[in-house]
Amino acid sequence: MTSREHDVGEVADYVPGTVYGVKVDGHPCAIVRHGDTFSAVRDICPHQGAALSNGSVTGDVLPCQVGEVQRYTRDGEVLRCPWHGWQFELRTGKSLVDPEHTRVRSYRVRVEKDRVLLLLGESSPPASPQP
Asked: Among 5, 6, 71, 109, which residue has the fewest nearby CB atoms (within 10 Å)?
């Protein structure tokens, strides 16, 4: 696939932490804003085809005891499927449960002159390992 950059709107159109479903050149994409940066993944869960843009942005739950308030790590970096709760890293598309075998395609996104530009045909680079 040839790399093609597409304008998907103004930065101000995207509320941080909200998932937006867009169709880019016939490809369904889910886009999430994190402060001044953006992530995009294919808008189809590999499990049973749910639109990930109908899911929620969350984090990874830290271990806790029964009755304790749940605490998150990587808050705002995980996209949860609306149908069965499958979770994917927004930056890489990798599954939290089986990252070596299950993933959703991720795309590069950049901002130029207050416009959000999504690059089809090129996956985003893997994130640095977490300490």
From this structure: 71
